Amino acid sequence: MKRLITLRVNGIDEALSVEPGWTLSRVLREELNLVGTKEGCGGGHCGACTVLIDSKPVMSCLYLAIKARGKDILTIEGLKGENGALHPLQEAFVERFAVQCGYCIPGMIMTAKALLDDNPSPTEEEIREGLNGNVCRCTGYVKIIEAILSCAEERNVKSPSKEI
Ligand code: FES
Ligand code: FES
């Protein structure tokens, strides 16, 4: 039986009627039309569905929507700046040609955001380690890691103390 819940997504409270077994990825995509969050494997193996819950990366295909009540959910759509400007990580991915088919990219970027917020100056090794749950089926890892490194370097020059 459906239950009425409120989820806080990208800073907005959303009232929703959900089945207890619905995953967060399903609710984001099918109830809220936030289709930037992708579903790849649907089983916790690829990271395409990664969103941030209370600033931590979570695979939303494994996370029940009702469990997310009272938490802050951030999706790729929530990264856009004023007038739809790209987030610095998105800009870095574009500038470094890190996007091929694009399917893994929202999950990569959400994971990278959590990583850089936690560790503003990661080494290449730490980025590789941080992304180990995110799979790119186009195998574009080198460019993805370069993009995250360059974003971290640029941000540390411009505003070292700020969340990315
Ligand atoms: S779709 Fe969630 S981990 Fe693959
Ligand atoms: S860019 Fe195609 S899956 Fe990563």
SSE map:
Blueprint: E1 3-9, E2 12-18, H1 24-31, E3 50-53, E4 56-59, E5 72-74, H2 88-95, H3 105-118, H4 124-130, H5 141-158
Parallel strand pairs: 1-5
Antiparallel strand pairs: 1-2, 3-4, 3-5
The structure holds FE2/S2 (inorganic) cluster (FES) (2 copies).
One FE2/S2 (inorganic) cluster (FES) binds next to loops.
Compact description:
The chain has helices at 24-31, 88-95, 105-118, 124-130, 141-158; strands spanning 3-9, 12-18, 50-53, 56-59, 72-74. The chain is an alpha+beta fold and 164 residues long.
What's the CATH architecture of the largest domain?
Answer: Roll
Q: Give the helix tally.
A: 5
Using only C-alpha atoms, the radius of gyration works out to 16 Å
Task: Catalogue the unreliable spans.
Answer: none
Q: Which small-molecule ligands are present, each listed once?
A: FE2/S2 (inorganic) cluster
Strand count, sense and barrel status of the largest sheet are: 5 strands, mixed
Please give the oligomerization state of what you see. single chain
> What is the 3D shape?
globular
Indicate the CATH class of the largest domain.
Alpha Beta
Terminal CA distance reads 40 Å
Description:
The protein has two domains: 3-79, Roll (Ubiquitin-like (UB roll)); 82-158, DNA polymerase, domain 1. Helices cover 34% and strands 15% of the residues. It has five helices and five strands; from the N terminus they run ββαβββαααα. It has helices spanning 24-31, 88-95, 105-118, 124-130, 141-158, and strands at residues 3-9, 12-18, 50-53, 56-59, 72-74. Helix 2 crosses helix 5 (141-158). Residues 99-105, 136-138, 140 line the site of one FE2/S2 (inorganic) cluster (FES).
